[in-house]
Write a structure and sequence with these properties.
single chain, about 100 residues, mainly alpha, 3 helices, about 60% helix
């Protein structure tokens, strides 16, 4: 059996580090290694599920958008039709 060793350090001045340290201190010393391994593996599974979920949502959204009918929008010609003056005159009547 091949074993690897890793050192983990906690900076107890940081709240997240302190919280993790305190959690591990409450565990049975025999189960600390198993617990840390389970947490790492669970975090990896969660990341994989997030990626799969994003991919599914992206695919479904793209499929739904392909089914939406798109109609081109005509831009109104820019020109002076006198409407701006009429609106401004109307607004000036309130002052």
């Amino acid at each position: 059996m091949q074993r690897k060793k890793m050192t983990l350090r906690f900076d107890l001045d940081h709240p997240e580090d302190r919280q993790a340290w305190e959690y591990l201190q409450r565990l049975n010393p025999v189960s600390v290694n198993r617990t840390v391994l389970a947490i790492i593996n669970q975090a990896e599974r969660i990341n994989q599920l997030k990626d799969e979920f994003r991919s599914i949502v992206r695919e479904e959204l793209a499929a739904a958008l392909r089914q939406v009918p798109v109609q081109p929008v005509r831009a109104e010609p820019e020109g002076d039709d006198g409407m701006d003056d009429t609106i401004m005159d109307f607004l000036d009547s309130f002052s």
